């Protein structure tokens, strides 16, 4: 089956949200997705896009996505952050994830990002093995910290 990796357009966002929801189920957080199609379109295709998005498309439609954004490292400069690399479960193992990751790394190289980073859950062995196989460095020395929107005022007031 042939695969096309391309930049997403607004028309791809409903399927993108379906894949995001599929990932949430896989990651044991089925009720965690609060973003909707309208917000994804506004944030990704407005005057100041908050993210970039590649899709993997076959004759069967969109089977995967890679969503990224930029952050800045005081040690390294511009960094591409891969938020999600998702291939629908029925299409895993066909090399589509690798093609999406290649598109991300090519984009990072073109945009002079010194690093591309992402996270993987410690129990997600198939993904960990995939990342090890490509030679990615897995850093177990960092702990993620998050403050949710409903906590902001309690903290800063």
From TrEMBL:
<dbReference type="InterPro" id="IPR051016">
    <property type="entry name" value="Diverse_Substrate_AcTransf"/>
</dbReference>
<feature type="domain" description="N-acetyltransferase">
    <location>
        <begin position="3"/>
        <end position="157"/>
    </location>
</feature>
<protein>
    <submittedName>
        <fullName>GNAT family N-acetyltransferase</fullName>
    </submittedName>
</protein>
<keyword id="KW-0012">Acyltransferase</keyword>
<dbReference type="GO" id="GO:0008080">
    <property type="term" value="F:N-acetyltransferase activity"/>
</dbReference>
<dbReference type="Pfam" id="PF00583">
    <property type="entry name" value="Acetyltransf_1"/>
</dbReference>
<keyword id="KW-0808">Transferase</keyword>
<dbReference type="InterPro" id="IPR000182">
    <property type="entry name" value="GNAT_dom"/>
</dbReference>
<comment type="similarity">
    <text>Belongs to the acetyltransferase family.</text>
</comment>
<dbReference type="InterPro" id="IPR016181">
    <property type="entry name" value="Acyl_CoA_acyltransferase"/>
</dbReference>
């Amino acid at each position: 089956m042939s695969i096309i990796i391309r930049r997403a357009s607004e028309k791809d966002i409903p399927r993108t949200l379906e894949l995001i929801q599929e990932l949430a189920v896989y990651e044991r957080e089925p009720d965690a997705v609060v973003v909707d199609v309208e917000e994804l379109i506004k944030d990704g295709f407005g005057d100041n896009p908050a993210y970039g998005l590649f899709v993997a498309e076959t004759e069967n439609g969109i089977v995967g996505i890679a969503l990224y954004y930029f952050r800045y490292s005081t040690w390294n400069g511009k960094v591409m952050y891969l938020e999600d690399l998702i291939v629908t479960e029925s299409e895993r193992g066909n090399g589509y994830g690798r093609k999406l990751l290649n598109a991300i790394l090519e984009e990072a190289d073109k945009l002079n990002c010194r690093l591309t980073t992402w996270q993987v859950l410690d129990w997600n062995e198939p993904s960990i093995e995939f990342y090890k196989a490509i030679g990615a460095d897995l850093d177990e020395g960092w702990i993620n910290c998050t403050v949710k929107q409903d906590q902001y005022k309690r903290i800063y007031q």
